[in-house]
DNA sequence: AACTCTTGCAACCGCAAGATA
DNA sequence: CTATCTTGCGGTTGCAAGAGT
């Protein structure tokens, strides 16, 4: 019995099918118990990995695409106030994630650094900027072109840190709030791995969000859909389940 | 047209804080 | 009150697409 401890844990890029699966189970169980979701979903991922994928990519509230100039300005402004407190900054930019902002910042700083280099060091002889990227990308410890030192500024940490309880925009509350539109679709996706684009999923989720009623319709389907669920749950989390099912069936019996 | 370098982004890791037993 | 487990954060890395030669 020692060999089936935790099977192989998958790493690296997520497949579309994994995404669909994760969305499905997060919609079902909420976005708090990540270990639980990871187990129950059958995904060979850690809870951590699932959370990250959800927060940074799958969450319906996410904006995609380039940051607007206003957003960019806000990032710079807030960063000058708070330093590398990416998640805090992200809370002020609805639809943007800390990861995204962090990436944007690094890119931004790299650009600035390069501009500086060029203006400061005249293009006299064939400047040796052909070295590897790492050599000209000290963006990490960038002394920030503005006028402060990110992590050295004690004022930064003692600012208005009153927002401890402020939840991120991507919080679904951990309870059943909406119902994913998958159903048997999942089967199809399993085969072609591409039938159901994430864009479609967003649309559907929005739709379903308005009509949570569909929950009534699935009181049992879920158990057919995922037979493994029951035994997994026993192992996974025996104490929260009663509450969960309570709410779950309450809502379906109430309305049905 | 082929190849190399650069850029942007997604995902991982380790650590710390918070929650729960 | 302490120990253990889970979640969240910030830093870092690796890869794919795009730009340049």
TrEMBL record:
It holds the Pfam family Myb_DNA-binding. Residues 6-58, 59-109 form the Myb-like domain. Its main location: nucleus. GO terms for cellular component: nucleus. It is found in: Nucleus. Keywords: DNA-binding, Nucleus, Repeat, Transcription, Transcription regulation. Residues 110-167 are annotated as: Disordered. Residues 145-155 have a biased composition (Polar residues). GO terms for molecular function: DNA-binding transcription factor activity; sequence-specific DNA binding. Residues 121-144 have a biased composition (Low complexity). This is Uncharacterized protein. It comes from Rhododendron simsii.
């Amino acid at each position: 019995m020692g060999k089936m401890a935790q099977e192989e844990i998958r790493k690296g890029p997520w497949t579309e099918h994994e995404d669909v699966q994760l969305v499905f189970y997060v919609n079902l169980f909420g976005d708090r118990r990540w270990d639980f979701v990871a187990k129950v979903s059958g995904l060979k991922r850690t809870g951590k990995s699932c959370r990250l994928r959800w927060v940074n990519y799958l969450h319906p509230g996410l904006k995609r695409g380039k940051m607007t100039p206003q957003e960019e300005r806000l990032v710079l402004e807030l960063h000058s106030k708070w330093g590398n407190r990416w998640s805090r900054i992200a809370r002020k930019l609805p639809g943007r994630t800390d990861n995204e902002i962090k990436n944007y910042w690094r890119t931004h700083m790299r650009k600035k650094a390069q501009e500086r280099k060029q203006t400061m060091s005249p293009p006299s002889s064939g400047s040796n900027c052909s070295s590897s990227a790492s050599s000209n990308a000290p963006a990490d410890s960038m002394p920030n072109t503005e006028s402060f030192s990110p992590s050295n500024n004690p004022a930064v940490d003692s600012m208005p840190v009153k927002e401890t309880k402020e939840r991120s925009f991507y919080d679904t509350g951990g309870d059943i709030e909406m119902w994913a539109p998958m159903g048997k679709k999942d089967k199809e996706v399993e085969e072609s791995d591409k039938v159901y684009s994430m864009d479609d999923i967003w649309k559907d989720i929005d739709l379903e969000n308005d009509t949570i009623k569909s929950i009534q319709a699935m009181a049992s389907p879920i158990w057919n859909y995922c037979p493994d669920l029951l035994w997994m749950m026993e192992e996974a989390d025996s104490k929260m389940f009663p509450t969960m099912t309570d709410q779950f069936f309450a809502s379906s019996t109430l309305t049905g």
